[in-house]
Design brief:
Length: 371
């Protein structure tokens, strides 16, 4: 193609995560469109088990320059040399560590346009991170965010709104596929769940931000009314896992709450569930929630960040206040008791995210590239 660009996607690593998933989808989409695309990672690889195998670019276009810290000058020199040799037209950078290193390297490579992606609200950043980001803004072409709430949050950092562009993340087309009743039944059996049970599922990292404490408190209260027939699947891992497992034992919910860890069969797990739930204290735009809605699940979610841009309370899901286990429990009870409402909300949820495909996301990205 005549307007093909040389593009680098830079990120800390290719471990399984929302940012990494976005990089993989964007890389493959732009490569398919005729652009020359590289993926650059700046932290040491911890093993061969990551998302690199999902990239469809030539293997020699997947580059790792491992930094031991931001003060690793030897690695920084390698980065500058690689950028000078590669001569990319555009760099899309992700996550604070890589965003910092890449923008500093741009000082030695003036012609490259650097776009920085922000998936978290500024409230999540420490003062030091905010200062560094603000100081490096003159080296930044645009900030790409995946929710209007994140864009609004940058007002507090005295960053011009003209510098920020909203591009929603995409959803892989396989999440829109309808499973057969037999597939769903087999999946539930493999998880030890009966066909008549109502299954709530939460997919998120096990950290304080996700508000699991309040989710488990709410689920304990649900147990007062539903002695059986309700299960909670928790998909993900993180530093709070042991603490949460102890909380489950204390509440005597260990026969109804299953910690499944990180999984590669997220779509299958979603199709085995009845309701998606997310009790975050703050959020940007959670990919797992979008994927759940695409599979036809109604959502119970806290009214924070970009969630309120997608979840229409009472139509495709129920919104609750953060840190309010009583509201969460009430929303759970409402959907557990009403299978017809679950189905109607699930259909509305699927319809409301139908335009959020990766194809549309890539088209928006190409408009930005050519602007």
């Amino acid at each position: 193609m005549s307007n093909a660009k040389k593009i680098v996607f830079a990120i800390n690593d290719l471990s399984f995560g929302g940012g990494q998933k976005t990089v993989v989808e964007e890389t493959n989409g732009l490569f398919k469109g005729g652009h020359e695309v590289f993926v650059l990672t700046l932290l040491p690889r911890l093993g061969e088990k990551d998302m690199a195998s999902e990239l469809k670019i030539p293997p020699d276009h997947i580059v790792n320059i491992p930094f031991q810290s931001l003060w690793d000058f030897a690695a920084f020199i390698k980065l500058v040399k690689w950028l000078r040799r590669t001569k990319p037209d555009i760099i899309f950078s992700n996550l604070f560590f890589t965003n910092t290193a890449v923008r500093l390297a741009r000082i030695f490579r003036f012609r490259t346009r650097v776009f920085v992606r922000e998936g978290n609200l500024p409230v999540e950043k420490s003062l030091a991170v905010k200062i560094v980001d603000s100081c490096l803004m003159f080296l930044t072409e645009k900030i790409i965010v995946n929710a209007a709430a994140i864009k609004d949050g940058f007002k507090k950092l005295w960053i011009s709104q003209k510098k920020i562009i909203v591009i929603y993340n995409g959803i892989n087309e396989r999440f829109f596929e309808n499973p057969t009743a037999q597939d769903r039944s087999q999946l539930r059996q493999s998880l030890g769940i009966g066909d008549d049970e109502v299954v709530l599922i939460c997919i998120a990292s096990l950290n304080n931000k996700k508000g699991y404490q309040y989710l488990l408190e709410a689920f304990r209260d649900i147990g007062l009314y539903y002695k059986k027939g309700v299960a909670l699947l928790i998909v993900g891992d993180g530093p709070e896992r042991t603490k949460l497992e102890v909380q489950v034992m204390r509440y005597k919910l260990d026969d109804r709450v299953r910690f499944l860890g990180n999984r590669g069969d997220v779509r299958e797990l979603l199709t085995a569930a009845d309701v998606f739930i997310l009790t975050s204290l703050w959020e940007g735009m959670p990919n797992a929630m979008l994927e759940a809605m695409a599979t036809g699940l109604p959502v119970i979610a806290t009214a924070v960040g970009g969630i309120v841009e997608i979840v229409d309370n009472g139509k495709n899901g129920l919104l609750v206040n953060p840190r309010n286990s009583m509201e969460i429990s009430k929303a759970m009870a409402e959907l557990i008791a009403a299978p017809g409402k679950r189905r109607a909300m699930g259909e509305s949820a699927r319809s409301s995210v139908s335009s959020l495909t990766w194809d549309n996301h890539i088209r928006n990205l190409i408009k930005l590239i050519n602007s």
